Amino acid sequence: MTRKTYHGSCHCKAVTFEVDLDLSHGTGRCNCSYCRKVREWAAMVKPDAFRLSGAENLTRYPDDPSRPNASFFCRNCGVRTHGAGDIPEIGGPYVGVQIPALDDATPEEIIAAPVQWMNGLKDDWFSIPAETRHL
Ligand SMILES: [Zn+2]
Which of 74, 88, 95, 103 has the fewest C-beta atoms lying within 10 Å of its C-beta? Predict the structure, then answer.
């Protein structure tokens, strides 16, 4: 697979985005207390590969400027579009695009994208959790 430009949005379309993404580079899922509740499934890109429209309609969680990593969701429909922050261990600033928010990735492309599981529940981000079927 190669890098393509995908389009994504929340459900009500108040927030839309474009992202340059190669799904064959993989996607991430996690078992931490937050990701479990939202069924996190994201693909990481550098910020310059992500172009957002309707940012004024987003709410940030956690809404705490002292925490650099946050998840963003539409304040109208509640659908999460992306997360963003800065994690030196994975190369610094990032945007984590929500796979379910992509509008024009085909089911075949999404199915073919490798999934990297993270054991966030144990703060062991580079290990695969023993169990993932409930997530
Ligand atoms: Zn919305």
Answer: 88
